[in-house]
Structures are given as C-alpha cells and as structure tokens.
Amino acid sequence: MADALFVVLRKVALSLGERTLERIGAEVVEAAPVLTDFEHSLKQIEDELLILQAFVGQVGPHKVGDKAFDAWLDQVRDVAHEVEDIIDEHAYLAAQAVDTGSFFKRKFRQIKNFVAWQKFTSQISQVEARIQRLGEMRNRYGISVGEIHRSNKLRHPNQLFMSESSYLTDNSEIVGHADEIERLTQWLLEEKQERTLIAIFGMGGLGKSTIASSAYKNQKISRTFDCHAWVTVSQTYQVEELLREIINQLIDQRASVAGGFMTMSRLRLVEVIQSYLRDKKYFIVLDDVWDRDAWLFLNYAFVRNNSGSKVLITTRRMDVSSLAVDKYVIELKTLPYAESWELFCKRAFYASKDNICPENLRSLAEKIVAKCQGLPLAIVTIGSTLSYREFEEQEWAFFYNQLSWQLANNPELSWISNVLNMSLNDLPSYLRICFLYCSLYPEDYRIRRKLISKLWIAEGLVEDREDGTTMEEVAKYYLTELTQRCLLRVTECNACGRPRTFVMHDLVREVTSVIAKKEKFGIAYRDAGITKVSHEARRLSIQKGAQSLNSLTSSRLRSFILFDPEVPSSWIYDVLSQFRLLRVLCLRFANIEQVPGMVTELYNLRYLDFSHTKVKHIPVSFKKLRNLQVLDLRFSYVEELPLEITTLINLRHLYVIVIHDLQQRSLDCFSAVKILGNICHLKNLQTLHIVSANKDLVSQLGNLTLMRSLAIMKVRQSCIAELWSSLTKMPNLSRLLISACDMDEVLDLRMLKPLPNLKFLWLSGKLAEGVLPLIFSKFEKLALLKMDWSGLKKDPIISFSHMLNLVDLRLYGTYGGEQLTFCAEWFPKLNSLQLADMEHLNWIDIEDGTMIGLYHLELIGLRNLKAVPVGIKYIRKLHQMFLTDMPNEFIQRLQGSDDDIVQHIPNVHIFDSSDSKAVNTFHFVPYLAKKYGPGATKYAPTYWGSSSI
C-alpha cells in the first residue's frame, strides 16, 4: 500500500552507502559541512520512514475503504516523494560535480550549485516537520492498529457479497467452461477412497466460485456425501473463525453455541472437527484461498479416513493450487469470443426475445464485449448495467468511450474493480510497485521480459541481493510471481522455454492505471481529451496524441516512455529539457535523427533507448552519463561508438545493431559497430551486441567475466585463439554469435573449450576443413543453433542429433552435399526448422518419429530441391510451412501430385524474396508483432516499409 515508502527507503540506503563526500573529493570542499549534515539527517529520516512502513504494512490490509486512512496514506506518499526528490537532486548535483568538463566549466557549476547544496538543509527540516505532523494526524484521527475484528464479514462486506453472489448463481445462467465443469464433476464422483484435494485456479472474475458452487449444489454430487460445508477464506482470514464456521455448517449453529465452541482455542476446534468427520464422507469447499498457510490447520482438521472425501479449493495463486495432489487442478481461462457474446446478450438483452442484440447497437456491443476480453465478471456486470439503459446508440457510445472512468467511478461497476484490486492489494510492496509499472504499456502490448526487467532495475525497484544473483535474475523471479498470481499472462516462450513476453488483461490494466495515477506513481496518456498532465506524475508513457498536450512541466518525472511515432522531433527536443531527474528515457520508434542535446545532462539516467530510430551518431558527451546501465541502439543507424563509451563503468547492457538483410540470408546481414578504446573497465557488462572484432578487443573481452550474451562479427583467423581464450573466462555465457569477416575466412573451433551454460549459438562463416569440430558433442544444452555458410562436406544432422534440448535449428548455406537425413527419435523438442540456400541439396529424408513436435518449417532458396520431402506427412503437429524462392517444379508438385504430403498443414505460404511487400509481410510485421504485440506495427516508422531493407 505504501509502495512509495518502499522505493524511497531503497534509495536512502543506496545514497547513504555511496559515500558521496569521498567520491566528489575536494572539488566541492565548500559543501562538505552541508553534505555531512545531510547524511546525518537522512539517516534519521530513514529510521522514521522504516517505522511508518511497518505501521502501514500492519494496519493497511484492515483499513480497505477507510477514507480517513486513505487520505493520511496519501500524505505519507507525498512525504516519501519529497524525500525521493531530495535524494535524486542530491545524486544529480554529485554527478554534476565530477563532470569531466573543462576546469572553468566545473568551477562555474560549483559556484552556481553551492546554493543548491545549501537548500538541502531547509528541505530536510521541512520533511522532518512533515513526518512529525503525520504522527500527530494519525493520533488525532484515531488511525491505529487497534483490535482487528474477528469477523471478516464486517471488514470486507463487498468481498463477502461477491462470494455469496457466486454461490447463489443459478446453474442455467452459467455460460462456458463446460469441459471444466464436467471434469470437476467426474473428480467429485470418482470412487477413490483416500481424501482428494482439488483446486480451481485462475485470475479474479473468471468464475471459479461460480463453478465450485454449481458442483456444490449439484444434487447428484451432494447425495454421495454424508455432510458438506462451504466457507470463504478471504485475504484476512482468521483460523478460529474458519473452524467455527465449518462447525456451524457441519453440526448446526445452536449446537455450536451450546457446545461452547465460540470460546474454544484453535487446537480444540480442530479436534472437534476431526471427531465429527472421523467416520464420514465429507465434501468441503474452501473458497477464495490466498495463501498456503490457511491449509496448515485445516489439513489436520479434515481427517484422512479413507471414506472418499473431497476438499475443493478456489484460488488466484498457482502456489496454492499446487497443494492439490495428483494434478487435480483446473486452470480457468478467459471465455472465447462466441461464449462471451452469448453471456453478454443474456444479461444486456434479457428482456428481449431470445436475448437478441438490436442491430443499431451491435457494433458497440461487440466493442464492449471485446474490451472485456473473456472475463465473465466484467461481461456480466457491464451487461447488467446496460440492460436497463435506453437502447440508444448515442448512450451506449458514451458509455463505451467513458469505460475507463466508469470502472473507476460508477458504483454499479465496483464489483469489477473490487475483485481485480484484491489481487493487487495482496502483492507485497516490491511486487506491487513493479506491477504498477506494467500499467504504463498500451492495450494488448506484449511486455518483454528482458525489457521490463531492465526498466525496473533502472528505476531502483529490484533488490540487489549481493549473493551472486544478478538483479536481472531477481526481476525474472518477480515476473514469475506475477504470472503465478494471474496478474500477467505468458504469451510466448523462448527456445529454452523461459517466458519471453507477457500481457496484462485489458481491464486489469485499466484498473491498475487508475491506481497508478491516483497514487502519483505514473500516468499512461492516451489522448483522452486531456491537455495537461499533473505535475505530480513521476512516470509518464505517451501512447498517442502527444502534441495535444499543452502542459508537460513535471520536473519530478523519473521515466519518460514514448510510444507515439508521429511526434515531431522538435516536440521531443523541447520537452526533454524539463526532465533533468530522469532515470529512464525510452524513445523507441521515435522520429528523430540525432540525440537530443539535453540527454547528456541527465546525470541520473540509467536506461536510454534509441532503438528503431534514425539516430546515426553518438556524441562524445555521453561520457557524462556515468550512471547509465542500458544503452539500446538496435535497428538505428549507429555504426561507431566513441572512445568515451568505455568510461561508462555501470553499463550492463549495450545493444548496437544495424540490419541490412531482414531475412538474415547473407553473411553481413547485420553491421558490426566499432568500439574505440579499452573495454576492460566495463566489468558490469552482461550483454554486448554487435561489435566488430579486432586483436585488442577480443583480448579485452576476457575481463568481462559477467558476460551472458555476446555477438561479435568481422572475426579473423589471426585473433580466433585469443577470442576462444576470452570466452572461457565467461562462466555464465549463454548466448553467442560469431561471424567471420568474409566468406573465405575460416573459423577454427578446434581450440574452443566447452561453454557449459551455452544455450544459443549462431556461427556464421566457414569451418576448418569443412568438418564440425568435436566441441559440438559438448553442446548438449543448446536450445537454438544457427549455422551460416559453414562449408560442411558431410551431412551435419547426425552431429546435432544428440542435442535433445534443441528447439530451433537454422541451417543457411551450411552444407554443400546433396542429401539431409532426419532419423526417427531425433530432435524430440524441435519446434522450428529452417533450411536455406544449400545449392546442391536435392533430397531431404524424414523418417517417421523424428521431430515429433515440429510446428514451423521453412525451406528457402533450395534451388535443386525438386520433390517435396515425403516425410513431411509424418510431422503431424506441423502448423505452418514457409516456402521462399523455391524452384517452380517444387511448387508445381506441391500444388499437384504431392499435395497429399502437406494437406495436414493448416498454413502453407509461398513467396518470392524480391517482393519487398512480401518480405515485410512475412518477416518484419511478424517480427514486430512477436516482440511487441499485434498492434505494434503502427509504431514502426515508414522507412521500415521501404524496399531498401
């Protein structure tokens, strides 16, 4: 609840640990007394904020809906933000003090900023006074821990009402989930003597309680049990209350009172339930379970008496659902569109014959249903709200256009926000604040794991555990937690099976955006008729309509993320001058050709993204960005980095990629950037893409022992031994791209030692003697392998067959022979296969039982392959096949006599690579959609669509 406190306390700890005085030295010796007092006062403020954080954490969950507490908490956030501003301003001035400009420039700044140093004293005093007033206000308005009421019913009336509503739902009103209901019924009726724990798992609003209720009230099921009970656990359950409620339902309330159960301890209550259930076949539903601890006492109370008893749990959390044994878990998904439409019409048009939608409202009704994205709670609630409104197009259009406002302010729709908010409020601070950051993305945007992790780290939201675990790995754990709590949905995994992209349900995003704005965390601007953004906003993403903003003067911004590609560069240059405390600047797809001059004055900047822009030159003044952690220049026009880049010792990820061949069929499909200077100082570097090799650089690489992902091109035989030596000093290296300087240069891998954690390998260039080296037998963990122009003389497939984890195999001009053979049982996990530009290849033998999971197949430029490989018919899971620049005879046979070989493949695409429109359609557009979501192509500048790709 007090996420701002969480952030500022982390910053306070970092600030106190940086020893600013030692770092800036004698250059600002005049400010030394001020800085000493500052650090002393900051430590006192840290102590106060820690106590405030503990108090809010203890009281907050029991004050939901308490307006006095909410108003007080808002004041706490303001104080936390004020402290954060002071710390970041302090960091800004400290970085400016060690700016490596000219002597006179530094002296001028020191004189100019000395007044700013002095201001810290008065600012700190004001904060201390405000903290004192917060304590007084808390006492004045009776905001205290107090005694938490034993009954959750009194504290959470809405929550109880929602649960009871699901329980009271008529089975005839249920739409969808037929398979899940049937499976649940079978499990409850099966003749199994031992007690069975069953779980229904899914995000809030999917209908978990409704499905449980349908089974609970099913007469056929209830008659098979001697007794049954239904209890709602909730977020603030108390074990004693749960046990008493179960006793009340199993026995009866009068007997409960007479038996003195109201005053019994929890252990005695457990014994009572055990005694009653000892010889009975029981069915108990535990609705809305939020943590595994709730099961500890209940597990003992529900005796294992081998009578065929069943316990059914509904939960939003995967860890809770894992309590169910033998995989008795039903994971609910959102409804498909057809069932969503049926459910909506049942509610919105219940009074009309056959629940038919009036023709004049159909278009708007379809948009509303689409907005609900298959969430039954939203469909039912919105449909019911619209059912008694006039069936006028204008009124429905107004409702749809104001849906975000309606969700936040309309009491009739409070069910939706209440249910979704419960998941948000259940998050610990470190997860909640990270999830709020996700709400800055547009609707249906695919949130990339690597990108969001870097943004969280740049903002200081990720814990540095200092135990050898990188912050990127901690951020990955955070994403896993959010996924297991059903707040993010995985949309794609990489070749290793690790989640690559996530998406938020649109209504979850709407509700979370409202909270983020209310708590001054951040604003997602969507040109909704607003011309001014609050100066209190600390993060801002502009999704469209940036030019309509008349006022954008928030000097408090820490993140500025631009999604609108139509904004003129002049607007961008002007607006950046106002955000000097930025930590994150993302101008991906922005229409700019040069780095805005103000950028190099952003001393606190951690993350800088100019990818997919027309930026060509990185200025020497980048040396000022000493805190920079991420520099992303992918798909820009930058081909050389200045010497000063090597002074950015905090750099963790450096991406510089210029693409020339989107199909990646040439040796020089990418440009390799030249890095001048010595990279030995970049000891924090984990990612380096793509650099041009030289003798000095490859030897310096050995100093970058934290490297996880490296792409290096223009490699010559003269420096290959030094490169292999450097690679062996990178124990965590998992991704490697090596490309030779030209088609005639040989890559001699015989001296390469095993890289134990390598999962991604892309080799481009001739291999020594046209033979795969023995080192390939050590690459058992590889999930993706791409080999280009290797000049192999022997069928390499057998040499790859031991790679049981291989998911993606791409061979481009790899082999000079005539036949490739895929034997049975090879490549059990292979999902994608691409074979390209092997000019002599005329036969591909595919045995039955090989590549049993293959989903995607590409055959490209195999000019001598005239017959469709017969074995393709054995690859039964093959879903799509792309054929590019294939011989006419091959295509004719595919469409004629060999049609039966591919008739099981739903999608077969044939095109010519000389057709630039087809290249974009089949390569660039899917690339953008895969990375950023289905609507991402609208963010691409027009130059991507040119024939120059």
Please give a structural write-up:
It comes from Setaria italica (Foxtail millet). GO terms for molecular function: ADP binding. This protein has 949 residues and is of the alpha/beta class. Among the domains are: 138 residues; 177 residues, Rossmann fold (3-Layer(aba) Sandwich); 81 residues; 95 residues, Arc Repressor Mutant, subunit A (Orthogonal Bundle). It has 32 helices and 32 strands. The chain has an 18-stranded mixed beta sheet that branches. A 5-stranded parallel beta sheet has the order 2-3-4-1-5, sandwiched between helices. β3, α14 and β4 form a beta-alpha-beta unit. α1 runs antiparallel to α3, α3 runs parallel beside α5 and α22 crosses α25. The longest helix is centred in the first third of the chain and has 38 residues. The chain is globular. It starts with a helix and ends in a 17-residue tail after the last helix.
Brief synopsis:
With 949 residues, the chain is of the alpha/beta class. The protein contains 32 helices and 32 strands.
Radius of gyration, rounded?
A: 31 Å
Which percent bin holds the helix content? 25-40%
| Major β-sheet profile | 18 strands, mixed
- What is the CATH C level class of the domain at 155-331, in words? Alpha Beta
For this structure, the CATH topology of the domain at 155-331 is Rossmann fold
Query: How many runs of DSSP E, i.e. beta strands?
Result: 32
For the record, what is the CATH homologous superfamily label of the domain at 155-331? P-loop containing nucleotide triphosphate hydrolases
Mean pLDDT score: 85
Which runs of at least 5 residues are low in confidence (pLDDT < 50)? 147-162, 939-949
Shape: globular
Keywords: Coiled coil, Leucine-rich repeat, Nucleotide-binding, Plant defense, Repeat
Protein name: NB-ARC domain-containing protein
Domain NB-ARC: 179-352
GO biological process, one term: defense response to bacterium
